[in-house]
Amino acid sequence: MKRNLALGVDIGGTNSVFGLCDEHGTVYYEESISTKDYAIPEDLVDSIYQRVKSVGHLPKVKGIGIGAPNGNYFSGTIEFAPNLDWTGIIPLARLFEYRFKVKAILTNDANAAAIGELIYGAGRDLKDFVTITLGTGLGSGVITSSKLVYGHDGFAGEFGHIRVIPNGRKCGCGRKGCLETYASATGVVRSIIELKSKNSESSELIKMTNPQASQVFELAEEGDMFASEIIEYTAKILGESLADFACFSSPKAFILFGGIAQSGPNFAKKVKGYMEDALLHIYKDKIEIRISELHDKNAAVLGASSLVWNELS
Predict the structure, then answer these.
(1) Domain range for 186
(2) Which residues of the chain have pLDDT under 70?
(3) Cβ neighbours for 133, distance < 8 A, ≥ 6 positions apart
(4) Close Cβ partners of 174 (under 8 Å, ≥ 6 residues apart)
(5) How far does CA 113 lie from the centroid of its chain?
(6) CA 74 to chain centre
(7) Are residues 159 and 112 in the same domain?
(8) d(CA 65, CA 71)
């Protein structure tokens, strides 16, 4: 194999995924390691280096793309990420550059997902769109004129922390009512406990010890009325929020990524309906709701590595 390769690294609070792919999105190698096994980031970087070296592709690596929580594109640092054991400001891009001797580009994981959709996924035919990542939390990456919006300090596009319910649910950021406390896997589970319904007592969800968001969608498909109410509630909050976000960049599409986006065939349709109902008239019938095309396609590696090809293009 003579192709140039990018190393894509997705840093997670529990596991970090990394792999090698070319500019066409072909992944040649992928591996996952436990982030928590490394007390300092230098050790994690060295472990990734040794593993990439062992598979014989090190000379082909032309750049490194890194997606990380609280990742700052301009400084190449992770800044006070609450779900990582490493504290403070971590100069992660510089650590990778020092070890691999190639350029390293770092941004937050949702921004990496947006670039991944632009290069490889559901945004290939678009110049203006927003990726919404629906995982443990809610992240977003804003693309305008085929460029990612970073803001003056690298932290633009934190739609998950726009407050949608006054004095609502407590968020990990320390505030109350943030969107991700409602429209995320964690938010769906919280709704099981916090929503009041005449259908809750007869629902299988109440009998479960540790219910998961995926089970809510499964039960809704089986006719569980309370599960259906939770999905409707989640879709309403997300759809109405997207209607407000449209005023910022007037995107051609919102691309939904993550387990919730893939759960239940009607969820995206519900979100679209609530969004249309709440949209300012000038935006109505102009914005699509799309589902990510990176699912089951090494999404973490592709999203992170796409930062390299985007920078080189």
Answers:
(1) 126-291
(2) 1-2, 264-265, 296
(3) 109, 110, 113, 139, 140, 141, 257, 258
(4) none
(5) 6
(6) 19
(7) no
(8) 11
pLDDT recorded at residue 122: 94
What pLDDT, on the 0 to 100 scale, is given for residue 118?
A: 93
Cα 252-151-293 angle, rounded to 5 deg = 40
Please tell me the pTM assigned to this model. Answer: 0.90
- CA–CA distance, 245 with 275 (Å, rounded to integer): 10
Domain assignment of residue 237, yes or no = yes
Per-residue model confidence (pLDDT) at position 263: 77
Percent of the chain whose pLDDT exceeds 90: 75
pLDDT of residue 80: 85
**Are the C-beta atoms of 141 and 113 separated by less than 8 Å?**
yes
Strand partners, 119: none
Domains of the chain: total: 2
Axis crossing angle, helix 225-249 with helix 185-194, rounded to the nearest 10: 130
State the burial class of residue 46 (Cβ atoms within 10 Å of its Cβ: 0-12, 13-18, 19+). Answer: middle
Q: What is the pLDDT of residue 2?
A: 66
Q: Residue 150 is which amino acid? A: Y
Flag whether 157 is in a domain: yes
Q: Which two tokens stand for residue 87?
A: 């504290």
Q: What is the rounded CA–CA span in Å between residue 304 and residue 113?
A: 7
Task: Give the DSSP letter string of 256-311.
Answer: EESHHHHSSTTHHHHHHHHHHHHS-GGGTT--EEEE-S-TTS-HHHHHHHHHHHHH
Residue bearing tokens 């007390």: 39
How far, in Å, CA of 223 to CA of 228, rounded? 8
